[in-house]
Amino acid sequence: MMHRKPTAKIGSIGVTHTQLAVEAELGWLFREQPTEDFGIDAYAEVVDAEQVRGRLLALQIKSGSSWFRERSPGGWWFRPDAEHVQYWINHSLPVAVVLLVPGAGGTHAHVIGV
């Protein structure tokens, strides 16, 4: 029998919550990266007063409580590996890392610009 890994479910929920936030709260366009990705899960495009601006933001979405293990005075420490950081820094678009904890009490999201 096939089994779905819990991390796959959490990842999917994270992308869905991010899409909802980008589209409903910001009013921007959201494009999931459905093919092989190496550090970018989706793209957001700025929409200002119903005008699509042609400005894109790359999104790396990290979901689950494992990303919230190390508290800091203002939230949490996010410690990506050097390989991902180098990829994000060299990306042709600005990159935002979205950290989400989906849960029964609602989803908590934090965005970190790279």
Q: Strands, helices and their partners?
A:
Layout: H1 6-26, E1 29-32, E2 42-48, E3 51-63, E4 71-72, E5 75-76, H2 82-90, E6 95-101, E7 108-113
Parallel strand pairs: 3-6
Antiparallel strand pairs: 1-2, 2-3, 4-5, 6-7
Count every beta strand, where a strand is a DSSP E run of 2 or more residues: 7
Estimate what percentage of residues fall within beta strands: 35-45%
How much helical structure, as a percent, in the residues?
Answer: 25-40%
Gyration radius, in Å: 15 Å
Q: State mean pLDDT (0 to 100 scale).
A: 85
What structural category do the secondary elements indicate? alpha+beta
Order of strands in the sheet with most strands: 1-2-3-6-7
| Terminal CA distance | 41 Å
Describe this structure in words.
This protein has helices at 6-26, 82-90, and strands at 29-32, 42-48, 51-63, 71-72, 75-76, 95-101, 108-113. The longest helix has 21 residues, at 6-26. β4 (71-72) and β5 (75-76) form a beta hairpin. The strands form 2 sheets. A 5-stranded mixed sheet has the order 1-2-3-6-7, covered by helices on one side. A two-stranded antiparallel ribbon has the order 4-5. It is built from 2 helices and 7 strands. The protein starts with 5 loop residues before the first helix and ends with a strand. The protein has 114 residues and is α+β, with helices and mostly antiparallel strands. The mean pLDDT is 85. The protein is globular. 26% of the residues lie in helices and 36% in strands.
